[in-house]
Amino acid sequence: MRLVLFQPEIAQNAGAATRAAACFDAGLDIIEPCGFPIGAKSYARVAMDYGHITPPSVHASWTAFENSAVRQAGRLVLLTTKADMDLWDWPFAETDLIMLGQESAGVPDHVHAACDARVRIPISANTRSLNMAMAGAIALAAARRALKVPPPSAA
To answer: What is the pTM of this model?
Structure first.
């Protein structure tokens, strides 16, 4: 299971997603360009030392990610408010790649079309969307639950 961030714009959100990936034993991919340098203090402050537990694989572009071994190894599942299927109904596999779009714009149409599936987290009709890192954490927790992955053992 991997979390994929498509051109994240806010360093603190990417840092929080890094922590979520580490806590749920998931890999992490970041597709550039980002709205911040990967080494930004604001990213590191939120990621804390979790970035060492789950260091992100950084892809220079969408094309670089599409051609990567990571992308070829699993289904790309886009979290989007435009999906018809709820996250709870998706039949997760251990090799799934859960993609989150930009905070302000999601993903462009060509990326949307390249995904193997599109799922949404059902939220109140009075709201628009969840924070990107929070959505990623919810999706990772849902995937682990669906796959019946046991909790990591304490070291």
So the answer is: 0.93
- In angstroms, the CA 28 to CA 3 distance is 5
Any idea where the domains of the chain sit in the sequence? 2-147
Q: What residues contact residue 113 under an 8 Å CB cut-off, 6+ apart?
A: none
pLDDT tens profile 71-126:
999 999 999 998 999 999 999 999 999 999 999 999 999 999 999 999 999 999 99
Task: Please check whether the domain covering 2-147 is classified as CATH 3.40.1280.10.
Answer: yes
**Dist. CA 140–CA 119, nearest whole Å:** 13
What is the rounded CA–CA span in Å between residue 53 and residue 85? 32
